[in-house]
Amino acid sequence: MNNKAVFAKGDPGPKEFFSNTAWVNMLHTDEDQAFDTQVYNVTFEPSARTYWHSHPGGQILLCTEGRGCYQEKGHPARQLGKGDVVAIPPNVNHWHGAAPDSEFVHIGMSTQVHLGPAEWFGPVTDEEYNGATADRSIINNRL
């Protein structure tokens, strides 16, 4: 990863929500509830990922660096790279994180935060992760 990052890495992500090491930099917490949105920069080390989770108000990911993966429960994984946008509907159980051989950075936006915080469902197993990232030709061809 280059050291020209737009935002600082932030603090280590909580171990009860991430496998391996990820850093979270809260950019906008919306404490005054003026926008009904939280905005955060997340940096994943290679193979790091969120646990399975959902957002009652939905989530948007803006991928800014590296290569990663997004998967909804019961659906094939989607490979991600710089410039990709993922709009996740409310209450969709999913995970996202880095490819096995690349850091991955995204800006996340939790929308309609008045509906409540993310709900967490436990870790993405190594078997689930390896299955989602098994097609190295797709991952390795991302910019």
Automatic annotation (TrEMBL):
Query: Per the UniProt entry, what species is this protein from, by scientific name?
Result: Tichowtungia aerotolerans
Alphabetical list of SUPFAM superfamilies matching this protein:
RmlC-like cupins
Record-linked CDD domains: cupin_HNL-like
Identify the Gene3D superfamilies for this entry: Jelly Rolls (2.60.120.10)
Output the InterPro entries linked to this UniProt entry.
Cupin_2 (IPR013096), HNL-like_cupin (IPR047263), RmlC-like_jellyroll (IPR014710), RmlC_Cupin_sf (IPR011051)
What name does the UniProt record give this protein? Cupin domain-containing protein
Q: Domain (Cupin type-2): give its ranges.
A: 42-101
User: Where does the source fall among the domains of life?
Assistant: Bacteria
> Do you know which Pfam families this protein is assigned to?
Cupin_2 (PF07883)
Lineage of the organism:
Bacteria, Pseudomonadati, Kiritimatiellota, Tichowtungiia, Tichowtungiales
